[in-house]
Predict the structure of DNA-binding response OmpR family regulator.
Amino acid sequence: MARLLLIEDDLTIRTPLIRALRERGHAVAAASTAMAGLRDALEDRPDLVVLDLGLPDLDGRELLRMLRAVSSVPVIVATARDDEAEIVRVLDAGADDYVVKPFTAAQLDARARAVLRRGPSGADAQDPALVVGGLRVDPRSRQVTLDGVVVELTPREFDLLHHLAGRPGQVVTKRELLTEVWQIPYGGADKTVDVHLSWLRRKLGENAQQPRYLHTVRGVGVRLEAPAEQP
């Protein structure tokens, strides 16, 4: 049973969604304001947060930034804002996934399970650590180190890096990443991959212009490989 925290101020959405998610086997708590949601997320430590952006006391994107400063709990943003620029801003603020209103409880449940099944209790927990150059990706502890130094990643960033590290030297397409990491079996969301790759590069101390581990193959995808030996 997963413990979900639903931060949603609209009672007509919140009440039936709580009921439907509970019927699907989740334990669901709810908050109707940003600050109450932040408090509950920190005190109760849910497995996943579902966050509405249009909250009465604080914009949900700002709450997401506050939450990301103190927690790596997976967050699915529920928003009526369906333009690409807004979705990129939501991902850039630290969301692991998003759903656009109106959505069904079945759709949200599927996305929640896709995020949660990639946690340390899943199949990846038995996998050995992956080593590429000075990069070590351990699915059992879900810890990444670079040259012996711990790299703090969000759950989605870890999943992305783990997938790439399992295919060192291979070009992995964005379509494959969307299917295997995001559980989205169709294209049209390339920006999602691009934003997360940008975060990974920053945390690995590199950028697209001067890559060390993450190499973009224009029009195809991305390749993770160990840096060349310096003379």
The longest strand covers residues 3-7.
